Every structure is written in C-alpha cells, then in structure tokens.
Amino acid sequence: MSALQAELAELGSRHLYPNYRQAPIAIVRGEGALLWDAAGNRYLDMLGGIAVSALGHAHPKLVAAIADQAARVIQVSNYYYNEPSVRLAAKLCGLTRLDRAFFCNSGTEAVEASLKLVRRHFHVQGQFERLKVVAFTNSFHGRTLGALAATGQDKYKDGFGPLPGALHVPFGDIEAVRRALGPEVAAVIVEPIQGEGGVLPAPEGFLRALRELTTATGTLLIADEIQTGVGRTGTFLACEREGVLPDVLALAKGLAGGVPIGAMLCTKALEGALPPGSHGSTFGGNALASRAALTVLETLETEGLLARVRELGSLLTRGLTALLARHPQKLETVRGTGLLQAAVLREGIEPRGVLAALQKRGLLVSVAGARALRFSPALVVSPSELDEALGILDATLTELSAP
Ligand code: PLP
C-alpha cells in the first residue's frame, strides 16, 4: 500500500461519517472502463460508479464540455433560464416522448419529485384520498423518506419508520397489483429491472400489463429508470422494449456521466400539479450538470452507443452463461440485459469475500441484492475488457471452495 493510500484510508476512517464500508484503496484516476489507485494498481471497472459512468472515465468530449461550461457559468438559479438546461429538457422530452422535465441532483430526488407530483395532481383534481403508491417487494427507490417508503426492502427502512403510505405487492404479480389498486392509490412505481434488488428483470409483458391496468383504473404509472435508463440496457429506456410510455419517469445515475443530476419527466396532463413555489431545487438544472448531460446524450448518438450496448450485452450474457456452466456449484444463475447483468452466487458463499478476491485480481464489481455480482460498466467498455473481467471472475470462482 502506498503512503498516500494509507494516509487517505486512515484519515477517512477517522473523519468520514461511518455509513459506508470502504475498501482500503483510494482511486485517483480513470480512463474509459479502467481505474487506478494511489498505489498505481490498475482495475477493470465493471461497477461504473454504480451504473453511473455512461461514457467511461475522462471521456474527452465530457471533459471538454465540463471545462468549457465551468469557464462560462456553473449555476444561475432557476430564477432565469440557462441554455444547457433548456436544451436538455427539450432533448429528453424528444427521447422519452414525455412533455415536461424537472431537474434535481440525484435519483432519490427524482423519485421524491415523482411522488409529490402524483399526490398533488390528484389533490388539485379534488381527489384528496388518492395518497398512496403501489410499489414492489424487493424494489429500491432511494433514501429520502418518500422514496424510502416506496422501497420494498426492510433492510433500508430499519429504524426510520413510520413512513408515508405505500402498498407493496410481489414484483411481477399483476393480479396482486389489480387487487391493491383502489380509490386511495395515486400511482404504481416500478423498476423495469430491479437493480439494487439483485438485477431482477420484470417478467416479460409485466410492464405492458401494468400500463394497461393503470390506464384502465385512472392510476398513474411511474417508471423508475434511474438504473436502467440512459442506454444501460441497449435502448434509451428499458420500458421501450415493451412499448410502454409511463406518465412519470425518474432518471439519474448515467444521465450526466457522473456529474450529479436527477430528472423527473411527465406528460402534459400533469403539468399543472406543481405550480411555481410548490417544488424546487437550488442546484437542480444547473448549467454545469445540464451541459454534462447534453454531452452524454449527444455522445450516445454520435458514438452509436445503444447498438454497442446491445452487442456488448450479448457478449457479456454469453460469457456469464459459460461461467455458469463451468461453475455450477458456485453460481446459481445469471440474469439482466445489456450492460446491467449479474452472476448470482450460490447460497453459503460469502459475497464480500468474493468481492475482495476479485478486487485483489484487479476487478471491481458490486454486490446487488443478497448474492448477485453486478456488472454495470461504462457503455464504452471494450470487448477485450469484458473478456478480461470474465477471465478474472473465472479464475476467482475456480479458486473458491464450493459451499
Ligand atoms: N432508484 C433506483 C432504481 C436506484 O437504483 C437508485 C440508486 O441506486 C435510486 C433510485 C436512488 O438514487 P440515488 O442514490 O442517486 O439517490
């Protein structure tokens, strides 16, 4: 370990709030899907800042756009227009076929805005009892109190209750949703693939069935595409695969390639729900993050990244499936789409130990759910980098004793 790395680990362990469990390495630099720590060790970054690093680290276009915008203006407040945020709103509305965009700074804020929007929409319609959301077991929507209430995993909620009303039903069970819908329900919130829950895709046809059911009952549909959006699954939105247009959409993570941003988009029918003064954000829509996001969206197009994600996704599926066949005692299944996939460890294998072993060999991934080793690399990752990562996983699983 280098002196700098040791110093940072020691200082961090004393002064950072201890709500994370950092590995004792300090990352100092990145390029594409590669990272280097303060001791000069190279890592294949298959974590991508937790599905954030859309263009990879230090993408020249993103670096130049951020530097250029910083030299012009970073933040002006929402008392005025700024060019990047207006153009970003227009671009996102075009890409998603929605009509209005509200900007904030994180995923949980985008969910929070979505929940406030649907509540207030029914309030202004005089339907005061429509206060609840239907959400799914094993879901993750964020850490603020509203988003936490919608989250369907107790481990995130422990000690924070009571939380505002959400009804949780099994993910993928359309009949359970039908039974839960009633006059007190404003919206259904769904992740097309439950990311933090362990990279669990919704069953085929489920999103379409949800759309039909919510439309028929006058309930709103919120798609939380914070992890699945912005090209991660090979289409701009994962919902597109089933031709589903939600009423409300939450985006964040990859949208500005690592610069903090969140976005809530909605249909025209909802534009009256949050009038001036009813909701806002000091930093939301700042020129710097908006310019970064515009650059990400432009680069997705100019570099043909959606098609690339589909190709790389097939390669990753083939590679993980081959590992499943080679290590049936260590792996239970593989799942996911595009560049959001996971190899699920068998019960009895301690995922943290596997993470540490992978890290030692120069591979960074994360554990989602109880035992899913999640791959969510930059959308610009190369086939040879994916191969190298699969090779490291193979070697690590070979060394691992069966449970
Ligand atoms: N919703 C989903 C589907 C997520 O995956 C996440 C983060 O992992 C969030 C919401 C919360 O986003 P943030 O951590 O930016 O608040």
Explain this structure.
The chain is of the alpha/beta class and 403 residues long. The chain has two domains: 3-58 and 304-399, Alpha-Beta Complex (Aspartate Aminotransferase, domain 1); 73-302, Aspartate Aminotransferase, domain 2 (3-Layer(aba) Sandwich). The protein has 13 helices and 17 strands. It has helices at 3-15, 48-51, 60-72, 83-96, 107-124, 145-150, 154-157, 174-180, 206-217, 287-302, 305-326, 351-360, 383-399; strands at residues 27-31, 34-37, 42-45, 100-104, 132-136, 166-169, 185-190, 193-194, 200-201, 220-224, 248-251, 262-266, 331-337, 340-345, 363-364, 366-368, 372-375. The strands form four sheets. Strands 4-12-11-10-7-5-6 form a seven-stranded mixed β-sheet, sandwiched between helices. A four-stranded mixed β-sheet has the order 1-2-3-15. β2 (34-37) and β3 form a beta hairpin. α3 runs antiparallel to α10. The chain is globular and about 60 Å long. The model has no long low-confidence stretch (mean pLDDT 97). Pyridoxal-5'-phosphate is lined by residues 106-108, 111, 140-142, 191, 195-196, 224, 226-227, 252.
Short précis:
The chain has 403 residues and is an alpha/beta fold.
State mean pLDDT (0 to 100 scale).
Answer: 97
Question: How far is it from the N-terminal to the C-terminal residue, by CA?
Answer: 31 Å
Major sheet details: 7 strands, mixed
Report the CATH C-level class of the largest domain: Alpha Beta
Kindly estimate the percentage of residues that lie in beta strands according to DSSP: 15-25%
The name of the CATH architecture of the largest domain is 3-Layer(aba) Sandwich
Number of helices: 13
CATH superfamily of the largest domain: Type I PLP-dependent aspartate aminotransferase-like (Major domain)
Spans with pLDDT under 50 lasting ≥5 residues?
A: none
Strand element count: 17
CATH topology of the largest domain: Aspartate Aminotransferase, domain 2
